[in-house]
Design brief:
The protein is mainly α. The chain has a single domain, classed as Farnesyl Diphosphate Synthase, CATH 1.10.600.10. It has 14 helices and two strands, in the order ααααββαααααααααα. The chain has a two-stranded antiparallel sheet. Helix 1 crosses helix 3 and helix 3 packs across helix 8. The longest helix is centred in the C-terminal third of the chain and has 28 residues. The chain is globular, with a radius of gyration of 18 Å. The model has no long low-confidence stretch (mean pLDDT about 90). Its cofactor is Mg(2+).
């Protein structure tokens, strides 16, 4: 765990450094509240680990890792407004703490800081831009036409969750100067991990204790929000199995790449297995 925590700490330090440079102070307070209130930092960790698994150094990927975490947090601000969620990570959500206007401005500020970190590489800009298009289309689709079948749910999950995971992995491969085939393979791995992550999130929303989870539960049903459990008639246990199957597909994606065995690769494999058994 020390290996993994050292990578996470590197991301956290750089994240704070970036946020310390935000102006004016009111905006800085808002973006710090959103970003530093907790979070698993899964996406930025994926970015760093993919880079290392392909022969790069953590320092090569840390700015991209911070950038993808800022994009993720910006999207959470908007999610909480749409869902009327007043708690995020056990603290007041941005709109509940500062109001709707400042929360939206905080989301914009986070995106601006993120793209400043991606701007040094055209491939990085393209990877994140494509992910944001997918994310936006997913959000819009959910608002106007909720999925009614498992296939429609899977497409929504791919756009809303899988796309940013894909970008996180692609950024790590780009930071390691990998070829297009390798970038794609690791992108597929992460997209599948992201969808499995969302499936498990749906199950936890339906079955977990609110205090253990750190955010309100039963929200999908209350808001009539599409989750795998709500859209289909499958049980939570069956949903968990779907997630495990997707996790196996994710592992198959990276096994097709000629990446040497390493701690970084082992942790990426562990992540694919962890996301479907996590309790938070």
């Amino acid at each position: 765990m020390e290996y993994l925590e050292s990578r996470r700490a590197r991301v956290e330090d750089r994240l704070e450094e970036v946020l310390d440079g935000v102006e004016p102070s009111e905006l800085a307070d808002e973006v710090r509240h959103v970003t530093l209130s907790g979070g698993k930092r899964v996406r930025p960790t994926v970015t760093v680990l993919v880079c290392e698994a392909l022969g790069g150094e953590p320092a090569d990927a840390v700015d991209y890792a911070v950038g993808i975490e800022l994009v993720h947090n910006a999207s959470l601000v908007i999610d909480d407004i749409i869902d009327d969620s007043d708690v995020r990570r056990g603290v007041p959500s941005a709109w509940a703490e500062f109001g709707f206007g400042p929360a939206i401005i905080a989301s914009d500020g986070l995106l601006g800081e993120a793209f400043a970190l991606f701007s040094s590489d055209e491939r990085a800009m393209q990877a994140v831009s494509e992910a944001m298009v997918e994310l936006g289309e997913g959000e819009a689709t959910e608002l106007v036409a909720q999925p009614e079948t498992e296939d429609e749910y899977m497409e929504l999950a791919r756009r809303k969750t899988g796309a940013l995971f894909r970008a996180a992995a692609e950024l790590g491969a780009i930071a390691a100067d990998a070829d297009a085939y390798t970038v794609e393979a690791f992108g597929q791995y992460a997209e599948r991990v992201g969808i499995a992550f969302q499936m498990r999130d749906d199950v936890l929303d339906a079955t977990a204790d609110e205090d253990d989870l750190g955010k309100p539960t039963g929200h999908d049903e209350t808001m009539d929000r599409p989750s795998l459990v709500q859209v289909t008639d499958i049980t939570p246990a069956e949903a968990n199995q779907r997630a495990r199957d997707l996790s196996d597909d994710a592992l198959a994606s990276i096994s097709a790449v000629d990446a040497p065995d390493s701690q970084a690769l082992a942790y990426l494999q562990d992540l694919a297995e962890f996301v479907v058994v996590r309790e938070r």
